[in-house]
Write a structure and sequence with these properties.
- By secondary structure, this protein is mostly beta strands.
- Helices cover 6% and strands 37% of the residues.
- The protein has one helix and five strands.
- Strands 1, 2, 3, 4 and 5 form a five-stranded antiparallel sheet that branches.
- A hairpin with a 5-residue loop joins strand 1 and strand 2.
- The radius of gyration is 14 Å and the shape is elongated.
- It starts with 7 loop residues before the first strand and ends in an 8-residue tail after the last strand.
Length: 71
């Protein structure tokens, strides 16, 4: 799927791709890996319509950045 202009796309030399949304606190919205037999495989993906509901609702993703917690 196309990448949102407000996200950061990270790629490595093995073909893995992660799409990060800094404006959402660092959520990893999608992650895929390159395989020899099956090509690019989604490990984590998202539905843009659900992400558009942020911050009221969020039903996917993976937090990459965490807020500083008070001790």
């Amino acid at each position: 799927q196309p990448y949102d202009a407000h996200t950061v796309v990270l790629r490595d030399e093995q073909g893995s791709i992660a799409q990060i949304a800094p404006h959402m606190g660092g959520w990893c919205l999608s992650f895929s890996v390159e395989t020899d037999s099956l090509g690019q495989m989604d490990v984590l993906r998202y539905v843009p319509e659900e992400v558009a509901q942020f911050p009221a609702k969020i039903r996917g993703g993976l937090p990459v950045l965490f807020p500083i917690a008070s001790w």
